[in-house]
C-alpha cells in the first residue's frame, strides 16, 4: 500500500485502465504470474504472444511497487563487466550472459517503439560519474572492456563531465550511449495495457495466499477465496517476496530507494543541468542517481532508511546531496518525495529458481530492473513454452537462504551509515 509522505513525480497515463480480469474460481490457465510489475508483465506479454493463456495476479495496483516508483534509468549491463562474467561463468555461459546484458536497454526501447507505448523517454545515454581517482581508473577499465566489444561508450574528462552534467565534484566518468531514461509508471501501465490487449488476464488487488502442486497441476489460491489452476506459475514479486515459496524471501535483502524531485527548473538553470538529458549514477559507496523528468524537474535518488518513512526529514540526505552537486538549486523547492523497495542478493546478480517443476521465481534487480526485467521476461516466456534452461541468461540455481537473515538488515543499515560517513569524508 502507498506509504504516508510518499508523493511520486510519475503519473499514470490518463487513459490507464483498472484491471479486474480474473478467471472464475476453478478456471485454468497455462501460466499464472504472481506480481504485476515489469518482470511479470513482460513475461505475460511474451507468453501470450507465443500462444499461452496467461493470468496475472497483482496484490496491489499496477505500478504501485518499485516498477512504477523507480528512477526510470534504463541501463544495460550488470554490476560486473564482461571479463568478470567470462571468468566466473565460463566462456560459453559467460559470453551468452555478456550479450544478454548488453541487450537489456534495447529490449525496453524496442518495445516502446514496436508497441507504440505512450511513454515519455530520452535515449542519450547514462553517465557513471567518478569522484575519486580510484573510481576514474575503474571507469577506464569498464570503458576498455565494452569498447573492445563495439559498444557505443566513451570515457569522459573532467571538463566533459562538467559540461554534460553541470554538477560539481567529478574528476571524469564514463558515458554509455546505449542507455536512457523513461517514465517508469507510464511504462509499467502501458505494459499492462498491451499485455491485456494480447489476451492476458490481469487482476489487481488479488494477493496470492497459497501455491500447491497437485499431480503436476498448480493450484493458486488468493486471499479473496478464488482458486485457479495452471500448468506453470511465475513468481515475479522480487523485493515484495513473502512466504509463498519457502526460503525465497530469505535469499534477498530488501532495501528502500528514496527519491526527490524539484519544482520544474527555471529555463536558465535547466540549460546548464543535464542539457542532453542523460541519466547519471555516481561512484560513491552509497551512490546517488539523477536525471531530468519530462516536465523539466531534477529527480535524484539514493538509499534511504530501512524503516518506512515518517516525514519529509527522511529525505534530507538526498536534499544535501542535491545541494552539494548543484549549489545553484538551493532556492529551488523540493516538491515531490517518494520511495520504492528494491532487492539485493549477496552476489549482486539476479537469481532464477525452479524449486519444483513448473514453478519459476526471479529475484534481484540490483538497481537495473527496468531493462533487466523487461529482457528477462521474454526469456522466461520462451522457457515456459518449452525452451531449454540453457537458453536462460542466468543458470537455474537452488534457493539458498542467507545465514542469519533476520540480522542481515540490521547489518546492512549499519553498513549504509558507515559508508555514508566515508563518502562525506571524500567530498
Automatic annotation (TrEMBL):
Keywords: Oxidoreductase. One of its GO terms (cellular component) is cytoplasm. One of its GO terms (molecular function) is oxidoreductase activity. Residues 30-381 form the FAD dependent oxidoreductase domain. The keyword Zinc does not apply. It holds the Pfam family DAO. Gene3D superfamilies: D-Amino Acid Oxidase, subunit A, domain 2, FAD/NAD(P)-binding domain. It comes from the Bacteria. InterPro entries: FAD-dep_OxRdtase, FAD/NAD-bd_sf. This is Glycine/D-amino acid oxidase-like deaminating enzyme. It comes from Mesorhizobium sangaii.
Amino acid at each position: 500500500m502507498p506509504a504516508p509522505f510518499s508523493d511520486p513525480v510519475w503519473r499514470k497515463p490518463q487513459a490507464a485502465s483498472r484491471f479486474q480480469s480474473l478467471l472464475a474460481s476453478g478456471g485454468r490457465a497455462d501460466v499464472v504470474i504472481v506480481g504485476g510489475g515489469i518482470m511479470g508483465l513482460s513475461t505475460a506479454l511474451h507468453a501470450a504472444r507465443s500462444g499461452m493463456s496467461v493470468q496475472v495476479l497483482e496484490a496491489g495496483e499496477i505500478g504501485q511497487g518499485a516498477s512504477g516508483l523507480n528512477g526510470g534509468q534504463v541501463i544495460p549491463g550488470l554490476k560486473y563487466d564482461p571479463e568478470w562474467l567470462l571468468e566466473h561463468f565460463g566462456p560459453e555461459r559467460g559470453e551468452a550472459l555478456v550479450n544478454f546484458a548488453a541487450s537489456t536497454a534495447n529490449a525496453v526501447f524496442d518495445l516502446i517503439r514496436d508497441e507504440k507505448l505512450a511513454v515519455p523517454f530520452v535515449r542519450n545515454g547514462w553517465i557513471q560519474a567518478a569522484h575519486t581517482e580510484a573510481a576514474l581508473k575503474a571507469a577506464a577499465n569498464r570503458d576498455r572492456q565494452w569498447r573492445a566489444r563495439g559498444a557505443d561508450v566513451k570515457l569522459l574528462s573532467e571538463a566533459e563531465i562538467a559540461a554534460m552534467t553541470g554538477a560539481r565534484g567529478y574528476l571524469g566518468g564514463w558515458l554509455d550511449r546505449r542507455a536512457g531514461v523513461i517514465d517508469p509508471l507510464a511504462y509499467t501501465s502501458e505494459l499492462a495495457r498491451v499485455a491485456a490487449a494480447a489476451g492476458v488476464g490481469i487482476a489487481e488487488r488479488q494477493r496470492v495466499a497459497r501455491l500447491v502442486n497437485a499431480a503436476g497441476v498448480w493450484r493458486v489460491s488468493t486471499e479473496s477465496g478464488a482458486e485457479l489452476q495452471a500448468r506453470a506459475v511465475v513468481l515475479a514479486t522480487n523485493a515484495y517476496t513473502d512466504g509463498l515459496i519457502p526460503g525465497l524471501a530469505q535469499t534477498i535483502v530488501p532495501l528502500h530507494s528514496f527519491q526527490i524531485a524539484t519544482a520544474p527548473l527555471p529555463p536558465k538553470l535547466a540549460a546548464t543541468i543535464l542539457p542532453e538529458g542523460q541519466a547519471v549514477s555516481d561512484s560513491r559507496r552509497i551512490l546517488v542517481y539523477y536525471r531530468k523528468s519530462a516536465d523539466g524537474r531534477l529527480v535524484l535518488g539514493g538509499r534511504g532508511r530501512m524503516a518506512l518513512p515518517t516525514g519529509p526529514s527522511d529525505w534530507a540526505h538526498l536534499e544535501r546531496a542535491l545541494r552539494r552537486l548543484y549549489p545553484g538549486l538551493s532556492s529551488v523547492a523540493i516538491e515531490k518525495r517518494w520511495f520504492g523497495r528494491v532487492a539485493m542478493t549477496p552476489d549482486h546478480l539476479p537469481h532464477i529458481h525452479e524449486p519444483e517443476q513448473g514453478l519459476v521465481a526471479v529475484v534481484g534487480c540490483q538497481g537495473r530492473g527496468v531493462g533487466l526485467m523487461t529482457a528477462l521476461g521474454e526469456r522466461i516466456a520462451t522457457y515456459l513454452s518449452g525452451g531449454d534452461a540453457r537458453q536462460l541468461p542466468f543458470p537455474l540455481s537452488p534457493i539458498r537462504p542467507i545465514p542469519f537473515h533476520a540480522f542481515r538488515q540490521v547489518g546492512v543499515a549499519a553498513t549504509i551509515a558507515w559508508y555514508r560517513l566515508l563518502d562525506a569524508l571524500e567530498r
